[in-house]
Amino acid sequence: MPWTCPSCNGETDLGYNICWTCRAPRPGSDPRAEPAHVNMLITTTPSFSTHSIDHYFGPVFGETIYGANVLRDFFAAVTDVVGGRSSQYETLLVRGRNTAMSEMAARATKMGANAVIGMRFDYSTVGNSMLMICCIGTAVTASPLTGKYDGSPSCPP
């Protein structure tokens, strides 16, 4: 499901925290976080509808571990008692996902890839107060399709 940029009214897929058109941050995302995968195609699906896959390089990973601090834990405990969302932890998750995805994209680039397919996140705790976020996908080389397939027999895919 795409989101609409309030700055330029451009549409961007939900997994991206910056607008593809004007590079403005997505509303509700952490503006201090590094923009993730700005120059790389990344999808959670096993293929692209707009590109053909030319070469598979194999799995590629990005990891990050964040420690929770006493102040963040205190505010989260208060939120747990009174109800509501914990913006402190949500900010941490956004920053962690962006960092893990940026690392994955950088590693894919070093392999010679220009895209990642089948991307997913895994979350885990390390010890009592550390959060590990791992991003994994398949590094590929993809080329844009030259024409649009309209489904008719005279127009090959």
UniProtKB/TrEMBL annotation:
Write one Pfam family the protein is assigned to: YbjQ_1
InterPro entries for this protein: UPF0145_dom_sf (IPR035439), UPF0145_YbjQ-like (IPR002765)
Q: Which domain of life is it from?
A: Bacteria
Family per similarity comment: Belongs to the UPF0145 family.
Query: What's the protein called, per UniProt?
Result: UPF0145 protein Poly51_54380
Q: Which organism is it from?
A: Rubripirellula tenax
